[in-house]
Specification:
By secondary structure, the protein is an alpha+beta fold. Helix content is about 55%, strand content about 5%. The protein has helices spanning about 15-30, 45-50, 70-80, 90-125, 135-155, 165-180, 190-200, 205-210; strands spanning about 10, 35, 60, 65-70. A four-stranded mixed sheet has the order 2-1-3-4, with helices on one face. Helix 4 (about 90-125) packs parallel to helix 6. The longest helix has about 35 residues, at about 90-125. The protein is globular.
């Protein structure tokens, strides 16, 4: 009797930008996998056995290797699979890619996601009371500053880190797609960023991601429309 082949598995939550980044990476690397919808705030025991930190995403490879933290997952996939080179071909580009990842990890995520997204959408989903309008306003103000910086980058570069698409683009677009799902971006205000996002949005990997829907939250009409 032949042993059944084990599939790769990704534990994710649709509105988590880091889960989205890994999903884009997996598609760009042409990796088949099974998705498990995980609500990390429920602290499910079996999930905590995989990642004691209780955060998504978590990736389990075919050989049983278990990885958490989106950067660790994406670097592992970049080193173990063929396909799109995600981190750049030169030390200079790789350094810039990691700088941009750090920007979203250390600035964008706490300043925008943890104020705007968590208080506009996730508090209700988690049953944690009413949104905090003050924090939502702070998150929107912070978002404007970040979008201005992305517009500045897009005016000067073909892709965020240089001339080639990289994980920096996929990660930034993953974050913006969550905000776009919640109708929080005025794309026409940032024409160069809109062109950049449209290029990523047209990729098959991104179309697959944009098919997600969450019960009780309906995205705007332009969310999955390539002509936005």
């Amino acid at each position: 009797m032949t042993q059944e082949r084990k599939h790769c598995t990704l534990y994710h939550y649709p509105l988590n930008p880091f889960s989205r980044t890994v999903r884009l990476c997996l598609y760009e690397k042409n990796i088949s996998y099974v998705m498990v919808f995980e609500k990390p705030w429920e602290r499910r025991i079996d999930f905590l056995r995989l990642n004691p930190a209780g955060s998504v995403p978590v990736f389990e490879d075919e050989d049983g290797t278990i990885l958490s933290d989106y950067r660790a997952i994406c670097e592992y996939l970049n080193e173990t699979r063929v396909g799109l080179e995600l981190f750049g071909q030169t030390p200079q580009i790789r350094a810039e890619v990691r700088r941009l990842l750090g920007w979203f990890d250390m600035l964008f995520y706490p300043e925008v996601y943890q104020t705007l997204v968590e208080h506009k959408a996730l508090k209700k989903i988690q049953g944690n009371g009413q949104p905090n309008p003050t924090l939502i306003r702070i998150g929107r103000r912070n978002l404007l500053r970040h979008l201005q910086y992305l517009e500045w980058l897009c005016e000067r570069r073909t892709w965020l880190a240089g001339e080639q698409l990289s994980i920096a683009d996929l990660n930034a677009a993953a974050h913006l797609s969550v905000l776009d799902y919640l109708a929080e971006i005025e794309w026409d205000t940032y024409p160069e960023m809109k062109i950049w996002y449209a290029k990523i949005k047209s990729r098959p990997s991104f179309q697959y991601l944009l098919s997600d829907r969450l019960a009780g939250i309906i995205p705007p009409d332009n969310y999955s429309n390539l002509d936005f």
